[in-house]
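Allow me, if you will, to draw on your knowledge of protein folds for a short while. I am sending you one protein, given as its amino acid sequence and as whole-number tokens for its backbone shapes. Kindly check, if you would, that the fold set down in the tokens agrees with what the sequence suggests. The record follows directly beneath this note:
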Amino acid sequence: MPIELKILLTHGYFLEEDPKEKLIMRPYPTLGLLYISAFLNEQGIDHDVFDTTFSTTQKFKEHLLKTKPNVVAFYTNLMTKVKVISLIQFIRNEPDLKDMKVVLGGPDLTYNIENYLKAGADYLVIGEGEQTFFELVEAIKIKGELNQIEGLAYLENGQVVKTKPRTKIKELDELPIPNRGAFPIKKYLETWKTAHGESALNVSTQRGCPYTCKWCSTAVYGQSYRRRSPANVVAELAILKEQYQPDTFWFVDDVFTVSHKWLKEFHAEILRTGLKVNFECITRAERMNTEVIQWLKEAGCIRVWIGAESGSQRIIDAMDRRVDVNQVRDLLIQTREAGIQTGTFIMVGYPGETIEDIRTTAKYLEDALPDYFTITKSYPIKGTRLFEEIEANITEQPDWFTSTDREIDFKRKYSDSFYNWAIRYVNNRLEVARKKAKGTNSLKPMIKAKLSEMMMLWKARF
């Protein structure tokens, strides 16, 4: 007889317990988890969902002890890894939960299988999780064989068993839309509204990315490109607007304008239905042009992030970005002039980067004048080509179970202190340019820029 299972889906993002995330205050519902929930609903599999975002670790532990699910499945990523491992340890050390099966899914698993299993997980869902998790649940019910389930990893007699990779879903329209009703969506919207003056919801239209950037992980969807139909996406937007009335939508896709054919049809579907939405997205400069900008604007795009990562063509080539930095600059300017806000991404500390490359990056930002930009020190994610290139030069390899890949460091040209000042220098240079563009007093940021440059140069000597 099949076992009657109590299944709990959850994740490890606790907003109130993360000082950095509280400063950013941009929580989004975990779409991967909600896709799993919707798929289980479609298959008639009863389950519960516990959203940790606005909860606490203590309340979650109390929930486990009270409900005692047979199976608890965590969505796991780089940000939540350490918290999830601590929760697994709690489960393993709690007598009342000793028979609970722990399942993990998410992008951090693919290249860390043995470690996650050693951390106490029973099963790892590798790659796209909907069908794999469903089949795993069915097998647990009847104590059936696991080795024929694609995309699964587990321990057997102390040895890691990794089954055949999960076949990628070809027709994404066949998937149900995420089960957002399982999360307190209004709380997310209220949090956004309070912190930023506008509410936002995230939407996914594609899986995979066809590009080859060395630092980017393709652990879940691979280097592929599959997409929902424009009509399917617009229908979801209409439902979300009617149910939740968000001010904006955030398309989480890596390159929203990668297919001009798809974008043209999306634009036409928006106009045909008369749906009025605002949205922002990420793309690449070579997938933008005058016509694309017009389609985006007419469809409701208010903000476009165009990736560059550096203002130095030499470093962009080292990253295998396959884009011309001048084209990035020009498209940022052209997009902004068309009335769409712009953003870009920058990293410092990439292998081989020099002071001159950093100055060139600052000049690129001054010329492009993006409305928004993020800047970080580069870090190697396991499984990427960047990690493979620097692995022999790793200088700091913290304990895997209590740290993330962000804390891995490698031999760079300069010190940590240098890069801290480099980040300030780039920020200050852009602030000077923004002040000048607005015709306002730029003396204070000019002084800050000069001082940060002097400190950066001083730190370069050590």
Observations:
- The longest strand covers residues 341-348.
